[in-house]
Amino acid sequence: METRPASKAGSWYKRLPEDLMEDLDERFAKVPETVDGSSLPIPGARMIIAPHAGYEYSGDTAAWAYSCLDLSKAKRVFILGPSHTYGLSGCAVTKFQRYATPFGNFTVDRDTIERIKEAGQMADVPPRNDVAEHSLEMHLPFLYKRCQQTFKEPEEFPTVVPIIVGSLSRSKEKDIGRVLLSYLKDEENAFIISSDFCHWGDRFDYAVYAPDGDIGRLTTLYKHSQRPPGPPIYETIRLVDEAAMEAVKSGSHDAFVDNLRLTGNTVCGRHPIGVAMAALELYAQELNDENRSRFKIVRYARSSEVVWPDDSSVSYVSAYAVL
Question: Where do transmembrane segments lie in this chain (predicted)?
Fold first, then answer.
């Protein structure tokens, strides 16, 4: 197969183009006309963080990030997401020529893929894992709609550069960030960083609790634990997510890595975010402009408000960076 099918259509999001467009329109309509004092899209906001869960859960949050995304000069869009289907050390690139959506196909930029692959010593994503993976696919309908809003014809749409970012050390994230730096500097490139935030609950092996509100002294709850007498569990989830978001906003790659080591927060796209932050930090050193090359958070939501230890929740964050 040369075209990766839209494997989650009909389950994680609507399959029929007219139904899917109606759903997206409703979600975009909930975003205010201005964000951070700017009309939308935000000029120069060529990088976003957006979630990748089913649209029922994360679609409204994703619409905020995509409303900010500036594609006006984009010739290609890098999509960086984590692997949920197989263990991966390092990064891997797609072998497909096209990525399908219910609206139409995106063309994969094979030339850029090959250059990135060589420079970053990346592997190929096994096609069956590529098809099963949702962290990249869930962004494509949102991206297609934004392309329709930006360009006159599908022939003008940017190509895509899909990259799966697996397990990376702190230093390896910096290495990949350095590979991406020259692409960040080019205004013809845009970037989508795919990540959900805290996955809380026994089924995620992460059920921390901060009885005194101190994330430096987290305890562990268990599925059959009693309901804690202190603050509700969702307050702890908020605290660990807010700490991660503050680290993201700090512009410091090390601060982000250190925060996740402290809390163990189950940010599934921590490595894609880490790579992006490493690249942004390098770019910021050249720009000397605090309004650029740094993430700004625009939306935070959770799938549920957990109060019982046998419950679960996934958090969603949308952010943008002006490059």
Answer: none
